[in-house]
Amino acid sequence: MDENMKTVFVLDHTPYFGISGEDPFFLDLKGGKISLKKSLWTSSVESSIEYCRIIWDLFPTGKLIRFVISDKAAHIVNTWDIHTQNLNHILNAMAMVGAPRNSQQTSDYTVIHGLKTAIEALAEPADFQKEKREGGVSNRGRVICITSARDNPSMNSLEKIFRQVLIQQNSISGKNDDLLPIDFCHLVIINLYPSTMESLVTSRPPQDVSTNLRSEIHSNPSGKLPKVLMSLILEHYNLASTTVTGIPMKEEQNSSSSANYDVEIFHEAKSHSVFFGSEVVLPRSVKEGFEYETVTLKWCTPRAGAAEMQHCLAQNRITPVDVTSRPSSCLINFLLSGRSVLLEMPRKSGGKITSHLLSAHGGEIFIHSLNTSRSVLEDSPSISEGVGGKIVNYRIPDFVQTTLAQRLVPLKMKYPDENLGKVRAKIAKMTKYWPLTFNSTVVYSIRQYVEPLLVLTAKEDLTEEEILQCQQCIYQLVGIETRHELTLNSQRIKGKKDDQYRLMWNELEVIVGLNGKSAGHKAVLQCIRKVRTQAPDANEKEVDSALGGLRKMLDLGETSSVTSSSMLRSSTDSPMSPPAIERHKGLKHRATLTLFDIMIGKEQAIANKRIDFSGRLATPPGQVATLYPHLVAKETQSDIKT
C-alpha cells in the first residue's frame, strides 16, 4: 500500500482566510465586464475540489480522500465510507460550513485542531484495510494542509507539533484494536497569501523528518494555488499530461467556419512510459505557466473501425484538465458518441507516427497506447544471425555492464527484503528507458561523446562540480554539432541530419529527466533545453566561449577521473566500445584479482616506499638543506688544531 490510498485535506477556516486573495477575474454580462476577487477560502476549496475530481475520474475506486475544516475546532466533512467519497457530498458539506466569519483572529483559531484530527483519521481503518487486517496490513497516507503562516519558524513549529501528535497517535493505536498505527505519512503544507503581499515563508522540497514522516512546504499566492495542486497531483499519483492539438471545431458565433483548438488531458503515466526503450521519443515540453511537462500529440482524422484495427500496449482512463471549457466539452461528447480519435506525433520530416488512440468504453473514455515498433507476430529477435531472427545489433556490452552493476553479496540483515527492494527500485529506474538495439538509439550509439553525462546523471544527487561537468559535455556536443564533426550512424530517422540531432537532444532530455528529480538534475535538464533552442543559431565562437568559461570554473587540472578518462576514450574508442573499466595500478583488472595478486601488490607498495632525505626532514621549512654538514665540521676542527 502507498500513501495515495488515503489522503486527508486540512483546510484553514480561520478569519484570515476570509480576506480577498487580490487575484481578480472577469465576468461578461450584458452591461459589460465586471471584476471579482475570490477570498483565500474560496480559492482553497475550489482547488482542493478540483484535485478530488481528477483523482476520482481516473481512479473510481481505491483512492480515498477526506476533508477536515479547522477554525476554533476541527470539523469532519466526510469519512472513509465509500458513500461519502463523492463531490456532491463534499460540496453540500462545504456549503453548510460557509465562508469564515468576519471576526477578530484570536489564538483559539488555529489549523492545529485540523492536523490532529487528520492524524486520527489516518489511524482509522478503511473498509479494504478491515478485510485484510487479520494477515497484517500497511497503513500509509498523505495530509495536505492549506494554511497561512507568518514566517519559517512558525512553519517549523507546525511541523514539530504534527510529528509529536503522530508519535502519540501511534502509541495509542498500538493499544487499541480498532485503530491502525501509521507506518508512514507524507505531509504537504501549502502556505497561501494574497497576491499583492510577500510572504516570509520559503518553499522547501520534500525531506524526511523521521523514519515515518516526510514533509514539504510550498509558499504561493492565492492565484497560483490551482497550478501548484495540478503539479502535485501528477507527482503524487504518477500521472502524465497529454495535449491534443489541432482539433477542428466549428466557431460558436459562426457555424459555417471552423478553427483548431487544443485540449489537455490527464491520465496515468503508463500511457507514455510504455514507449520507453522503443524507437519512439514523445515530443515533450514544459507547459507555459506550470512546472510539469506535457506531451503534444496531433489530432488525426478519425477512420471507421479504427479502434478494432490497432494493437494496444496499454489503456488508461483520461480526464480533461479544464472540464468546463467548450473545446473539452466538445471532445468528450464526440468520444462518448462512439467515435474514436487517433493521435499522431508531429514531425518536421513530414512523416507521422500514430502513437495513441482515444476511445470510449462503457461510458468511460480511455487513451490507448498503440504498438509503434515491431509486431509480436513477426519473427522473434535473435542474439546472433540465424534462422528466424532479423535483429542482430543488440547492445550486448551495455547489457553486461548493467547486469554487473546490480550484483549482490550475501548479508545478514534484520529485514532481508530491504536491499532487494532497493535494488528493484534502482533497476526499475535504470531500465525505464533502455533501447535494446543500437539502431533504436542515437545517444548510446555515440556514447564516447556523452559518457560523463550518462555516468554522472545516474547518481541520486549531483554536486556543483558534477553539474559543471555535465554542462561542459552538453556544450561540447553543441560545438561538435555546429562544426559538423559528428556522424550519426543511427537508423531511427533516414534522411536529414538535423532530424537525427533533434532526436539526440530529445533522447538526452528523456534520459536526464528519468535519472533523477534533484536540483542538480533539474539544472542539467534546463541546460539541455536551453541549448536545444539556441543550437541552430549558435556559432563556433559562442560555443567556444561557453566552453572556456566552464573550463575556468572546473579548473581542468583537477577534474575527476570520469571526465578525463571519457575525453581520452572519445578520441580512441568506437561507438560499440563498452564503458571504461577501472584498472589496478600495474596489475590485473579488479574483478579478476586473486589473494596472491593482492599480497604481491602490498609488498610492492612497501618496497616502493623510501625514507625521505634526513637533511630535508631536519631543516626548517623555507631553508635549503646542506649536504654533508659533518665534513664541513671536520675540516673546521682540523684547521683550528693546526
List the helices and strands and how they pair.
Blueprint: E1 6-12, E2 20-29, E3 32-39, H1 40-58, E4 64-70, E5 74-76, H2 87-97, H3 112-123, H4 127-131, E6 140-147, H5 152-175, E7 184-193, E8 204-210, E9 213-221, H6 225-236, E10 239-250, E11 258-268, H7 270-273, E12 284-286, E13 293-300, E14 312-320, H8 326-336, E15 341-345, E16 353-361, E17 364-370, H9 396-404, H10 417-430, H11 447-456, H12 464-482, H13 497-515, H14 519-534, H15 540-554, H16 561-570, H17 595-608, H18 614-618, H19 629-641
Parallel strand pairs: 1-4, 1-6, 6-7, 7-9, 10-13
Antiparallel strand pairs: 2-3, 4-5, 8-9, 10-11, 11-14, 12-13, 13-15, 14-17, 15-16, 16-17
Helix pairs in contact: 1-2, 1-6, 3-5, 11-12, 11-16, 12-14, 12-15, 13-14
- Name given to the CATH homologous superfamily of the largest domain: von Willebrand factor, type A domain
**First and last CA, distance:** 100 Å
Classify the fold: give the CATH topology of the largest domain: Rossmann fold
Mean pLDDT: 79
Percentage of residues assigned to helices: 25-40%
Give the C-level CATH assignment of the largest domain. Alpha Beta
Poorly predicted ranges (pLDDT <50, ≥5 residues)? 536-540, 554-591
Overall tally of domains? 4
Biggest sheet character: 7 strands, mixed
SSE class:
alpha/beta
Strand content: 15-25%
Shape: globular
Strand order of the largest sheet: 5-4-1-6-7-9-8
Region (Disordered): 560-581
Organism: Clunio marinus
Pfam families: Mat89Bb
GO biological process, one term: regulation of mitotic cell cycle
